[in-house]
Known about the structure:
The complex is a heterodimer. Chain A folds into two domains: about 5-20 and about 50-255, P-loop containing nucleotide triphosphate hydrolases (Rossmann fold), CATH 3.40.50; about 265-395, abc- transporter (atp binding component) like domain (Coagulation Factor XIII, Chain A, domain 1). Chain A is about 25% helix and about 30% strand. Chain A is built from eleven helices and 18 strands. Chain A has helices at about 25-35, 40, 80-90, 120-135, 135-150, 165-180, 195-210, 225-230, 250-255, 340-345, 430-435, and strands at about 5-20, 55-65, 70-75, 95-105, 105-110, 185, 215-220, 235-240, 240-245, 265, 280-285, 295-300, 305-310, 320-325, 330-335, 350-360, 365-375, 380-395. Chain A has a six-stranded mixed beta sheet with strand order 5-6-7-3-8-9, with helices on both faces. Chain A has a five-stranded mixed beta sheet with strand order 12-18-17-14-15. In chain A, helix 4 (about 120-135) crosses helix 5, helix 4 (about 120-135) crosses helix 6 (about 165-180) and helix 6 (about 165-180) packs parallel to helix 7 (about 195-210). The longest helix of chain A is centred in the middle third of the chain and has 16 residues, at about 195-210. By secondary structure, chain B is mainly α. Chain B has one domain. Chain B has helices spanning about 15-20, 25-40, 45-65, 75-105, 105-110, 115-145, 155-180, 185-195, 210-215, 220-230, 240-265, 270, and one strand at about 5. Chain B is globular. Classes of the chains: A alpha/beta, B mainly alpha. Strand 4 (about 95-105) of chain A pairs antiparallel with strand 1 of chain B.
Amino acid sequence: xxxxxIIVENLSKRYIIGHQRDAxxxxxHRLESAVRNxxxxxxxxxxxxxxGREEFWALRNISxxxxxxxxxxxxxxxxAGKSTLLKILSRITEPTHGRIRIKGRVASLLEVGTxxxxxxxxxxxxxxxxxxxxxxxxxxKLKFDEIVAFxxxxxxxxxxxxxxxxxxxxxLAFAVAAHLEPDILIVDEVLAVGDAQFQxxxxxxxxxxAKKQGRTVLFVSHSMPAITRLCSHTIFLxxxxxxxxxxxxxxxxxxxxxxxxxxxxxxxxxxEAPGDSVARLQRVxxxxxxxxxxxxxxxxEPVEIEIxxxxxxxxxxxxxxxxxxxxxxxxLFCSNDWNDVSWWGTPRQKGLxxxxxxxxxxxxxxxxxxILAALCTYNPDAIHALEQDVVSFQVIExxxxxxxxxxxxxxxxxxxxxxxQWKANYISEAASxxxxxxxxxxxxxxxxxxxxxxxx
Amino acid sequence: xxxxxxxxxxxxxxxxxxxxxxxxxxxxxxxxxxxxxxKQTVVGVAWSVIRPFLTVVVLTIVFGVFGKMxxxxxxxxxxxxxxxxxWQFFSTALSESGNSLITxxxxxxxxxFPRMVVPASSVITSFVDFVISAAFLGVLMVWYRYVPxxxxxxxxxxxxxAFAVSFGAGLxxxxxxxxxxxxxxxxxxxxxxxxxxxxxxxxxxxxxARWRFLYSLNPMVGVIDGFRWCILGGQHKVYWPGLMxxxxxxxxxxxxxxxxxxxTERSFADII
Lengths: 456, 272
């Protein structure tokens, strides 16, 4: 490797889980075996696995390569081995088998606020944390003002950190870490901590670090939008093994469709069906326009929610109500099936009804959408069945088509992302030539005595 | 850019380079411990002086007044303090570095830096206490109008020796403590016991001649005798064979300490 990068070859990591054992046994046992076989102990021979100790392979035969400037996302279920992989790359723990070749300076952010001491002030903790993360005193001094500005806690710099709110704490900790200048930055799910605004700041900073400064970033996240937006390469771990690696969109789709629980579908048996004697839910699922069950959709695709329910009383006009809720708990919009005017007017019989709701393309923003489904009647108003977060699905940006975000790859705010009709054209030619640069070009602007500016 | 190779069981040359690169961390951790120690205290730094002062008082009474140990013509408190000084350094360094890895377990499991920095910085913290106590000794000497002989210029090598003993023993205890928390109880016992068998409250000349050599197996004997010789001079001659043995013990302690520490270091993050 001539430039910075990481090459991992056949990496494996084994932990030995000791089953419940008396703590005092540990030293006594060791002393006994040391006395019996002193030289064996000194040579550090592999200790025999006695009954009650089990092997656990956190990682098995992982191999991959990361080149300079790549942003790599590592995804997988909890317990897949992601944090262990990062720990080994950060040299906190050693591999059991295999090897890693790293070129370039590495900085890891596995926890926010590592080394912060509660009794010390913000100022003192900046120096301490910076030193622990590998900066020299001179570097910290140089970047001190930037760090303080990024964290936004100027006023509280000289109060002990134990008096900080958790938000301030996390902002300060990230501010220090964000100003490390390593060749390779390794970040664990620290983005899971903190409020939504903080997470956006983190993502923005990581984006800047990778794209503008050309550094290599390796991070673990459960946020698929973050992965698809930032990464050039994604690695998917399953139970310690490398299940897939490649372009973010494909790997994320693989991840979302993997697994036995389909968050996009919910079926109930007759006994557990939610509801009462008037109406009961039978099945709710998310599908595409062709009726196929799916959990991930591009912003350019319509999404269909299908609700099957039992109507148990004649002439009772049961209404299906859906609430679309985003990850932050904001209700994006609600919709009821009385929008189907012909159904609204249909006399109701007992039986199984299928209601389908089509959400058009170019409406939803990226992220996870949770559905709340309810069966209600009105006049008098009654709710017969209510299921919150009954199904959910992911919306991912479509990199290959035209969408609202155009060619912009950064953070796009807004809970919805409709693609609106825009129309732009010139309204006045003369005014645009006489106005001095910087003045806004409004129709009827007062610019009589301006000298004619010759445009280059 | 250097290429770093991470592999099971590989001791890296990188480690020693890293220790140099992280040299500022030694000072930072020591600075942090000192700062934290005196935050929100009223008495503050004075605590570092009160502790040796009280020990001197107790030992003077126990050994000097009741025990009537010979003092060789020097004011007894100064005699005791000369032994107290290196001993206090060693015992605090031992207890603090022993616990250092456990107290800093959150760092060890989340950040990379050469782990040896942690017990070493505890020894540095104790050294700062040592310097303060030494200043107190100066005050004592002025009080008793005692002028130290020219051998005092030989003090620095003995200080270095004290440092080495503390560091070596500290590494051992720190590494052992990670896996066997039993040492949390063993260490105070070693310190208590050591205080009575080391020549702190008495002179090593009290020890019968035929045991003198074996007595020097305790590395602190050489250190304390050396301190006495430097500060008090005259009759407190250094027992040279004993000192050589102590030197040997110290070297063994430091080298073996580093070896054991490095050997177990890789599993710290997993078992801490």
